[in-house]
Amino acid sequence: MTVEASKPILSLRDIRKSYGPVKVLHGIDLDIRAGEVVALLGENGAGKSTLSNVISGTVQASSGQMTWQGQPYAPANPRAAIDAGVGMIHQELLLLPHLSIAENIFVGRYPKKGGRIDRTEMENRARSGLHRLGLDIPPGRVVEGLSTANQQLIEIAKALTLNARLLILDEPTAALGGEETQMLFRQIERLKSEGVGIIYISHRLEEIKQIADRIVVMRDGNKVQEFDSADIPIRTIVEAMVGRSLDRMFPTVPEPTDQTVLEIRNLSSALGSFSDVSFKVQKGEIFGIAGLVGAGRTELVRAIAGADPISSGQILLNGQDITPKSPKHAIDNGVVLVPEDRKLQGLIVNHTIGENIGYANLDKISNGGWVTANRVRDFANENIAKFGVKGRARQAASELSGGNQQKVVIAKWLSRNPRVVILDEPTRGIDVGARSSIYDIIAGLAAEGVAVIVVSSDLEEVLGVSSRIMVMAHGDQAGILTRDQANDVSVMELATS
């Protein structure tokens, strides 16, 4: 590498950020060079997103200096950063649901011809970006109704059209399966070869080892360690992130009983997303569901929870047909779903923790039809303590880290003492420390005799927590594997069948 090529395109020196008396970033120094991927790691609340937002112009640093391509750099807003050649894909989807895919990709920078939006050019360029990611969807289609994974790929396609010299990718694969992730990695390699610098934020440490050139670890607003290579044992990385030794990630999976709690008989979707699915879940069993994105996993568990319609089949609980017509019907029978998108489907984020927990338990906390603030607070505090939520009942859910938001969603349903708990992507976008505590909750439910279903795109996760795994492919049930039979190869063979 030449001296010129080794010069950073972006340099940060002593970057600090405070919100009133709360200090979020403590003197961060960071260099990013052209054509390299720097993994930025840390638990939720470590300061990764705040630092990324400073670089991308979403927030301004309280003090410190940045240089971009050798010149002073202090973007007043994201538009200024984009104009300078710095783009960011946020962890939370920012698409406008009622606009088309192409309109979302080019929002705020529509190509024009003769003073008017050139829709042909816009859709052609959008189609090209989508094809690069293997996404064969008409660019004129509205975003509303697309899967979370496809929306994430559209966000990535949007970034690819920026022609940025630095891309910040915040949890870009959180909603993606293995095939989509590999497509993204191929695009990252191409961008690297073109001299684009990339800051890559992810909690999936195995993929960091695949894609990163260097690793920077943050903890409590500080840069605590930097590795010059990604060829580092995962345990070493995790211990740097959490500041302590981690003896284990996955808990011991309890042995289920022979008693069948939930039985699914020949279930088919009225929307065509899955057909003729049959399985049983025993008392105290953790039943995993794996498969590639689009296999019908989420649609299946939504149907079991009464959220999506079915065309045929039965759902039995303890031998009784309870095939639900609505989520309320399922909840009343003791079947609850922790959905894949906690912010859109699991929480009302601008309401308090207490209110969110209370909404799912009004029948428990009301007295003669009346609900008092004190009763909501007391009930919430009891469950906050029980499930280890780091927050107060009167605190807005939006102020919590991803891991604690997920614990609130789990707490509001588990406080109903359900008989079947379904968790769809339970640790999506959650740091390694919070993941471990959620796995403990899942194992604890099984130990108490609850039937648990876990849907996950993270193969290591579904292998680590499940007693048995059902694999889905193209809406069909490809097979069910015991814990002894299940491994990376056997699951992927069925998922691609």
Automatic annotation (TrEMBL):
Pfam families: ABC_tran (PF00005)
Residues covered by the ABC transporter domain: 10-245, 259-494
SUPFAM superfamilies according to UniProt: P-loop containing nucleoside triphosphate hydrolases
Keyword terms: ATP-binding, Cell membrane, Membrane, Nucleotide-binding, Repeat, Sugar transport, Translocase, Transport
GO MF term list: ATP binding
Signal peptide region: none
Domain of life, source organism: Bacteria
The UniProt record lists the keyword tRNA processing: no
PANTHER family, alphabetized: CARBOHYDRATE TRANSPORT ATP-BINDING PROTEIN MG119-RELATED (PTHR43790), D-ALLOSE IMPORT ATP-BINDING PROTEIN ALSA-RELATED (PTHR43790:SF3)
Protein name, entry field: Sugar ABC transporter ATP-binding protein
Organism whose genome encodes this protein: Paracoccus fistulariae
